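Subject: sequence -> structure tokens, single chain

Hey, anyone have a minute? Need the predicted structure for the following. Not urgent.
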Amino acid sequence: MSHTPDLKGSSFTLSVLHLADHHVANAIDFLKQKADQAPAFFANAPIVLNINKVGGELDFHALKQGIREAGFVPVGITGCKDKRCQRQAFEAGFAVMTASNTPANAPAAMAPTKVIHTPVRSGQQVYAKDGDLVILSHVSPGAEVIADGSIHIHGTLRGRAIAGASGQREAKIICNDLQAELVSIAGNYWLSDQIDSQFWQNKVMLSLNDESLHFEKLTI
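Reply:
Had a minute. Here:
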């Protein structure tokens, strides 16, 4: 058995907050509202800030403090337009992150579809790395199903479903009965209270369209 540290690449699900302007207070108020809506899900959740659309000067120190006060863990900043911005973010304690430079036409190695035959109980998490996930039963409240590809749920989705966890924007979520606590594709998520009643308790397919989740009721 080796007793030396080892450094390996891995992937994790991170929420990305896209800032619209340089007003820190607005961003913090937004995070606090989200935390109040789903405290169990967002407690100590890691978060990345995308500041690509920010035009004015950002107070990175105040931003970091506010994120912690809202109950999140600030991880990094992406979308810095120049070295000065990167330096300010780094000095405030943020990791400076950049988008992957992997060519868009380079196909990802996909794993075989992961199939779960039994219900996913509260507190359980199922993850399909580099592939799709099929749940042949129900997903209970407090349970979480994650896939780097698409997610198909043949029963009722009452917990959380996170598709495209590694950034695959073409991922889909299809479920026979939508009663989810949270649904997410490629970092874009909606909580239960954001889902229109016409889709609730119906067979639905979710996709990503222009940085927003698109819901489509299925009749077959």
